[in-house]
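sry for the spam today, last one i promise. C-alpha cells for design, 339 residues
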C-alpha cells in the first residue's frame, strides 16, 4: 500500500531520542575524519537507533550489531543508516532536518533494502519524528510528501513473511532443479563442492572490478584506515554459474556466496546474483529467494531493468539449513545449504 498526502503531520509519529542513542551517536561521530562526516554519522545513528527502539517496542526483532551502520569501516566510508530486521533484511532509516522538504537516498543504499523509513531529527527537544515509510526508491531524492504512513511498514513486513506458496507456486515443480546440499562450514577449511569456484574464475575477467558489495570494497581500502579496526574472523567467497536454459539464453548469471564468521558460532551470509559473460545487467524480474528449513520464504529480491546485481544478507548458526532459489519466468533452480 502506498499512501500519498500533502499533510505529513496526519501520520507522523513523534518519539524520544534516548540518552543511549545520543551517547552512541556522539561516540560514532568522534571517530570520523571531518566535521561533515561526523555530522552525517551522528544523524544516521540517531535515525537508526530511533527506528530500532520503535520496532522492538512493536514486537519486531532487530539486530543493530550486524547492520552496516554499526560497522566502523563501512560507517566511515559510506553514507549508511541501515537496520537489520531479523530474518527479513535491511531497513534504511534516513534522517532529515525539520526544514527539509525532500529526503536524499545515497546510491549505495538504493538496493539491498526491504524499505526506507524517514526520521526527522530535532536536537533542541531531544525528539525524533518518524515521518513515514516507502518500500522502494526510484531516484536519489524524493519529496517527503510522497511517504506513506509508518503503518505501511508493518503491512510490508507481513507480506515479506508470507509462505513461499504465495511467490513460487506459479512455477511448476518439475521445472525446479536442485543440487546436493552445500556445507558452508567446510568452506572455511578450503573444501568446496563441485561447481563452486573463485569469483574471478566464474565472472568475465574483462569486467570492471567486482563490487561484491560496498562492505567488501572497503575491506581492500587503505591499510592505514584499517590498522586500528579489529577483524578477528576471515571470510570466504565462492561463485557458481547458474543455468536456467532458454529463459536465460544470452544472459548467464552467477550466484555468489560469502561466509563471514561473526563469532565462534554465528556466521554472516551474503548472497548475490551477478550477470556473467559479457552482460552488464541482470534480466528484469529475475528473482533471488531464500527459504528456511520449512520451505518458507524469509528473504527475497527481484532484479529491475537496470540492476547489475541483487543481494540478500542474513546470519546463521551451525547446522541451520536453508535453500536459495533463482527464478525467471517458469524456470528456476534451487541450491541447498547447511551452515
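last one done:
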Amino acid at each position: 500500500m502506498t499512501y500519498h498526502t500533502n499533510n505529513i503531520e496526519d501520520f507522523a509519529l513523534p518519539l524520544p531520542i534516548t540518552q543511549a542513542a545520543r551517547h552512541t551517536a556522539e561516540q560514532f561521530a568522534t571517530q570520523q575524519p571531518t566535521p561533515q562526516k561526523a555530522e552525517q554519522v551522528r544523524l544516521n545513528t540517531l535515525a537508526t537507533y530511533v527506528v530500532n527502539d520503535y520496532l522492538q517496542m512493536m514486537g519486531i526483532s532487530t539486530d543493530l550489531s550486524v547492520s552496516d551502520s554499526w560497522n566502523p569501516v563501512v560507517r566511515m566510508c559510506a553514507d549508511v543508516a541501515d537496520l537489520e530486521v531479523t530474518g527479513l533484511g535491511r531497513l534504511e532509516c534516513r534522517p532529515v532536518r525539520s526544514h527539509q522538504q525532500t529526503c536524499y537516498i545515497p546510491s549505495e543504499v538504493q538496493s539491498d533494502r526491504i524499505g526506507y523509513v524517514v526520521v526527522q531529527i530535532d536536537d533542541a527537544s531531544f525528539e525524533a519524528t518518524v515521518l513515514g515509510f516507502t518500500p522502494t526508491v526510484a531516484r536519489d531524492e524524493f519529496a517527503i510528501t510522497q511517504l506513506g504512513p509508518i503503518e505501511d511498514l508493518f503491512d510490508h513486513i507481513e507480506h515479506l513473511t508470507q509462505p513461499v506458496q504465495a511467490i513460487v507456486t506459479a512455477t511448476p515443480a518439475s521445472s525446479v532443479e536442485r543440487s546436493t546440499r552445500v556445507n558452508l562450514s567446510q568452506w572455511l577449511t578450503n573444501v568446496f563442492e563441485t561447481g563452486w569456484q573463485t569469483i574471478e574464475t566464474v565472472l568475465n575477467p574483462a569486467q570492471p572490478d567486482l563490487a561484491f558489495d560496498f562492505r567488501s570494497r572497503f575491506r581492500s581500502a587503505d591499510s592505514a584506515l584499517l590498522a586500528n579496526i579489529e577483524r578477528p574472523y576471515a571470510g570466504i567467497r565462492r561463485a557458481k554459474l547458474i543455468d536456467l536454459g532458454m529463459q536465460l539464453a544470452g544472459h548467464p548469471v552467477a550466484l555468489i556466496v560469502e561466509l563471514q564468521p561473526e563469532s565462534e558460532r554465528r556466521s554472516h551470509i551474503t548472497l548475490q546474483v551477478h550477470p556473467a559473460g559479457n552482460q552488464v545487467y541482470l534480466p528484469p524480474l529475475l528473482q533471488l529467494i531464500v527459504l528456511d528449513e520449512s520451505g518458507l520464504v524469509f528473504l527475497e529480491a527481484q532484479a529491475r531493468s537496470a540492476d547489475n546485481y541483487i543481494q540478500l544478507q542474513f546470519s546463521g548458526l551451525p547446522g541451520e539449513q536453508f535453500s536459495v532459489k533463482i527464478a525467471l519466468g517458469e524456470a528456476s533452480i534451487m541450491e541447498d545449504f547447511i551452515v
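Residues 35-57 form the longest helix (23 residues). ok im logging off now
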